[in-house]
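re: ur question from earlier - yeah i can do the single chain one, its not a big deal. heres the input i used so u can compare w yours
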Amino acid sequence: MIFCVEDDNGARDLMIYTLNSAGFEARGFSCGLDFWNALEEEIPKLVMLDIMLPGEDGIAILKRLRSMAATAEVPVVMATAKGTEYDKVIGLDLGADDYLAKPFGMMEMVSRVKAVLRRSRPKEDTRVLKAGCLELNIGEHTVFTGGERIGLTLKEYELLRIFMDNPGRVFTREVLLQSVWGSGYAGETRTVDVHIGTLRSKLGNCGNYIETVRGVGYRMEAKR
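and the output i got, formated as tokens:
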């Protein structure tokens, strides 16, 4: 899946049509808010990201993507009408994988997308993390408790993955907020408490594996 974040409806529709015709699956979003909501459901293979957007601009979105554990390695191709050397350098310095200056041809876009996907193809993490009756399959992005599959949101999944990947380690709310929500997130650490509360509830009896460290944060003890 490729996510296209572009506020020009005509340009976005053409990008999606071209990518679909080239054999990719693509979804379009007109602003950062819709994009972040979609990320709760699915992590794309690549993001086409316009710099000039209403509300949160492309540079801010890129910073946040790179600061989140779940999206730090997702390839990003920046697209902008500005086309200045400054914007190109800023985008690449912040971790963009390629850059397209508008107006660009659709075949050029497809060629760049294919090239970026070839270069950035990550080594797949296929580990299965286990703690007591709790099992998290990283490769399949699934969670089971006592053999029953549990549906989690992206944020809940990432919190659980961090805990299970680091048994016994204490995480402050600030560290969890930055790792899961990104450094550009303006919310309060109370957000972490709320999500851990719902995560514990969904995990049932396994929810008590996540322990509150009073005055510090949270940890998950190793369970056998």
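Residues 79 and 100 are 5 Å apart (CA to CA). not sure if urs matches, ping me
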